Amino acid sequence: MNYGVSFNRGDIVANCATDVRADFVRKVYSLFFLSLLVTVGVGALAVPYTQVIMSMWFVVIIAEIACLFGLMAAQRVSGLNVALLYLFSAIQGLILGPLLALYEARFPGLPAEAGWVTLAVFGGLTGYVFATKKDFSFLGGILWVGIIALMAAGIVSIFVHAAWLSIAYSVVGVLIFSGYVLYDTSQIMNRLSPQDAVVGAAMLYLDFVNLFLFILRLLSNRRD
To answer: How many CA atoms does the CB half-sphere of 182 hold within 13 Å?
Structure first.
């Protein structure tokens, strides 16, 4: 997802030397994987305190949103941007840990299954972009419209409880965030500057988490 970075065509990774591009990609994916580890670690620690965290759900959500806006504002402030990325990942762990515990209680093994499927889909799409070097920037407008439609469908689903609608919502969510994996991976390769490693990692992190949540929802719909 776009973090509002203004791109200078003379200062993008695609125009840099091969070693600079390789170093940038390593930084992006190192930050991305470390963010996921933070989320998994905090989520595991949060599970025993599920009831306490659920009682503070509104506060945790507000903290997550505030942290995300802080990250957007400080996206190129060295040091602070990394700290905010990990803080955001930790808060996400506070949310996902109890949520996945509830899923595990109802559908044993489902969170792990969703995790493996997400890794396979994310890895396959990312590998495709790197292998083909295709520019998926043309998807930006389509995906943004898709996000708006997805939010509208989410609101409708609050009032209309139908199995087909829930499944359709999940499928569309998976397709949209699969598209964002293609789009954002392409942005990392072709649009970001060498100073935007944290931005790239945050984009991938949000794509992965959202893709995981929609796959989780889709698999739970199947079991229902």
So the answer is: 19
Residue 148 burial by Cβ neighbours in a 10 Å radius (0-12, 13-18, 19+): exposed
> Using an 8 Å Cβ cutoff, are 197 and 28 in contact?
yes
Check the CA dihedral 175-177-181-183 and report its sign: positive
Q: Would you say 13 and 24 are in contact if contact means Cβ atoms under 8 Å apart?
A: yes
* Cα 219 to Cα 216: distance, rounded to the nearest angstrom: 5
Nearest by Cα to 174 from 201, 207, 145: 207
Q: What's the rounded Cα separation, in Å, for the pair 62 and 53? A: 13
Joined together, the tokens standing for residue 110 give 């489902």
For 113-148, the pLDDT digits (tens) are: 999 999 999 999 999 999 998 889 999 999 999 999
- Nearest in space to 93 (alpha carbons), one of 122, 116, 67: 67
Residue 178: both structure tokens together: 């699969």
Angle between helices 18-46 and 163-190 (to 10 degrees): 140
Q: At what angle do helices 57-73 and 80-106 cross, to 10 degrees?
A: 150
The rounded distance, in Å, linking the Cα atoms of 224 and 221 is 5
Phi, psi for residue 188 in degrees, rounded to 5: -60, -40
Report pTM. Answer: 0.91
